[in-house]
Design goal:
This protein is of the alpha/beta class and 291 residues long.
Length: 291
């Protein structure tokens, strides 16, 4: 079972420059919340309470202003700094001590997930004991993602990074679940032509051992990558439309925490004081009245 999670929130965010010259991309707003709230909410929905956030060197204090240690959410948040981007598997090298002898989940700090059955799928994924599991979702522009080909039994038979031609449209999303061997495998990876260690190479290590499985987000779910300005604002518009229509907030961390019974009403009152007069606080106030 997986009880630890990592959010990789480093990177230079060059595709969103000049916005990211002064502020980390994961602290920019997706509608009414910092982007970092969305991947953090996914780990919390999974039931994971011990979380490592990896940030760029020199940006630690920016994150701690909004997410100091997780005590206010009934979880534990620790931080590590990354001197420069070395590829996604570097998260496991940096987090070696944090992971220890445990299985671990990794979510990219700029990924957005939404779906009615998402929590159920996440709870299923964290039950992983051995091997690795990825979340697959259909995409239109396959040349922008790592694409998995599956057989009739839904077993992954091939993963290709940004293929020019492919018969599959199933992208490997930025949410991964690994057993304790992930550190050892990551440390053995050699840099690619991009001079980075590649997540596809790590996944292929598990595939060759017949220990790579897949979960499907499904047509009713949404996975959005906020890597570019267009994608960033498309995601923000998506969240805005849903929240206004439903009257429910996506990625309200306090709501997830209180539903999991990790915090109580007193914590919600303190959160309202922390956020001040804003729509987010008004939503938390509604939660108090419902309890």
């Amino acid at each position: 079972m997986i009880k630890k999670g990592i959010i990789l929130a480093g990177g230079n965010g060059t595709r969103m420059s000049p916005l990211t010259k002064a502020v980390n991309k994961q602290l920019l707003p997706i509608y009414d919340k910092p982007l970092i709230y969305y991947p953090l909410s996914v780990l919390m929905l999974s039931g994971i309470k011990d979380i490592l956030i990896i940030v760029n060197k020199g940006q630690l204090n920016q994150f701690k202003k909004i997410l100091p240690n997780g005590n206010n959410l009934g979880i534990k948040i620790t931080y590590a700094e990354q001197s420069h981007p070395r590829g996604l598997p570097d998260a496991f090298v940096i987090g070696k001590k944090f992971i220890g002898n445990n299985n671990v989940a990794l979510i990219l700090g700029d990924n957005f997930f939404y779906g009615q059955s998402l929590t159920k799928k996440l709870k299923n994924c964290v039950m992983l004991n051995r091997g690795a599991k990825v979340i697959l979702h259909p995409v239109n522009n396959t040349s922008s993602y790592g694409i998995a080909t599956i057989n009739k039994k839904n077993k992954i038979i091939k993963i290709v990074e940004k293929p020019k031609k492919t018969s599959s449209n199933l992208a490997v999303t930025g949410l991964y679940f690994f057993d304790k061997n992930v550190v050892k495998y990551s440390e053995s990876l050699k840099p690619s032509r991009r001079k980075e260690i590649e997540i596809v190479d790590l996944l292929n290590k598990y595939k060759r051992r017949n220990k790579l499985s897949a979960e499907f987000l499904g047509r009713g779910g949404a996975w959005l990558d906020t890597g570019s300005i267009k994608d960033f604002y498309d995601t923000s518009a998506f969240v805005s439309a849903l929240e206004k229509r439903q009257g429910l907030k996506i990625a309200c961390l306090e709501e997830i925490a209180i539903k999991n019974k990790w915090i109580n009403k007193k914590n919600i009152v303190e959160a309202i004081k922390f956020y001040g007069k804003c729509d987010y606080s008004l939503y938390l106030l509604k939660l108090l009245k419902q309890k």
